[in-house]
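Task: encode each sequence below as structure tokens.

Item 1
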Amino acid sequence: MTIHLLEPPVLEPPVLAPMTWTDVGAVTDIPLRGARRVPTPSGDVAVFRTGDGGVFALIDRCPHKGGPLSQGIVHGRAVTCPLHAWNIDLATGQPMGADQGKGCAPVAPLRVEEGRILLGRPR
């Protein structure tokens, strides 16, 4: 019996578009379990801070009826839309529970450096 070992495929890293990063404030400017609305040229972005200090950014529009997610209640790693109580996962923008698969609030590029929040946009 001959055994042939297959080489694993070589995966190229994804090519990411160059980004321009804009400082929008200190992490501590957003209270724990709070949010801040940041106007951008392509629309408002909601920046959230979870109870454990995680920072996330979504386009500030609920996929259901366009409600302002920045005015919602942050709990765990989700936000509840203030209009119709949809729960949106902060990491993915996906609705949770019974509303799963019914649209998405796009995730905005975000990074934290030296306690500052930077929002990205493609160059």
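Item 2
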Amino acid sequence: MNTSAELLKELRIDRKAATPPPSSPRRGRWIGLAILIVLLLAGIGWFVFGRQRAIEVTTAPVVAIQQGSASSSVLDASGYVVARRMATVSAKITGKVREVMIEEGMRVEEGQVMATLDPIDANAQRSLSASQLEAARSQLAGLQAQVAQANAEAGRLQTLVGQQLVSRSQYDLAISQRDSLRAQLRTAERNTKVANDALAIADLGVDNNTVRAPFSGVVTAKAAQPGEIVSPLSAGGGFTRTGIGTIVDMESLEIEVDVGESFIGRVQPKMPVEATLNAYPDWKIPAEVIAIIPTADRGKATVKVRVALKVKDPRIVPEMGVRVSFLEAAQPARAAAPKGVRVPAAAIVERDQKTVAFVVGDDSHVEQRAVVAGATLNTDRQVNQGLSAGEVVVLDPPADLHDGSKVVEKQQQ
């Protein structure tokens, strides 16, 4: 019995022994720290052995090919763009503005109406002149009829006098009346002409209320508004406008430069000039000396020089600042100036039967770019397509250099 009971106890499962002991918090922290150390070592290993190594290369910039050769400058000076033909347009008479038809920047043609004045007074004067002309013409017509009658009467009396049917004194009286009427007719004709001229003057007075552009140009200033009084003489004082607006003939733009007396001997008429506007410093404008003004400014010790612009462009406007370079000689004409950019010949290589160059980007990675190579320029090579001025290319690209490779500038020994 005891033996059977002991055997049954051995077959019983001990649940307390099967339950694993609880793990301590300190042991979990050690396991996490070990995992972190393994990951850190793996990252360091990839950084040292797995990342892409930068390839040492030599680089050179891409340079734009200059179109022609500029003449050397013998003198540099500064000046301003001015309009040779500019006018502040005003009315010929004093009057009140009725309508203004211009705005700044608007182009006007010669004879175009810019503004109108109130024509009440001028219209009244014209009506009076027209009435006076009609009265003079009526008087002229009456005298013409009287003269015709007097001529006929004198003719009849002359016949009767010859037949001794009327007295000689009666005939002489008819002749006298006829001559008097003829004199009155001539006076009436002159009065009619005077009245006609007065009407023409009145028409001019009406037309003077219309302000027209004296030449074609661009409006640069609008000086008057409807309701204001304008006068060419400013008779109304400081509150009276003297003009409607200012127009400039953009075809007459030129440059005025003040050259020091010490250097004026270097400037000659017809001398080539290269002008650069302060607003567009990269734009070289060809120009030519028109004339040297034969007088000096004693205060500034300078002589004024007029320079003609050979290019007409809407970007050139009056009062712009400009720098000019007086050139030694005219630029020589070249039949076939090379175009595109130039790079060292060592930057052009053949890869996969293509002519390519490796361009270094801002992130030090290279881009393989197909190019169209041109003529050989000494140790350089002309590139017509594929590269732009200012980019950086790799010289003598290694065989293992490919698109996307990271490069570093080789240190000079």
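Check on item 2: The two ends are 101 Å apart (CA to CA). Residues 87-118+209-248 form a domain with the OB fold (Dihydrolipoamide Acetyltransferase, E2P) fold (CATH 2.40.50.100).
End of task.
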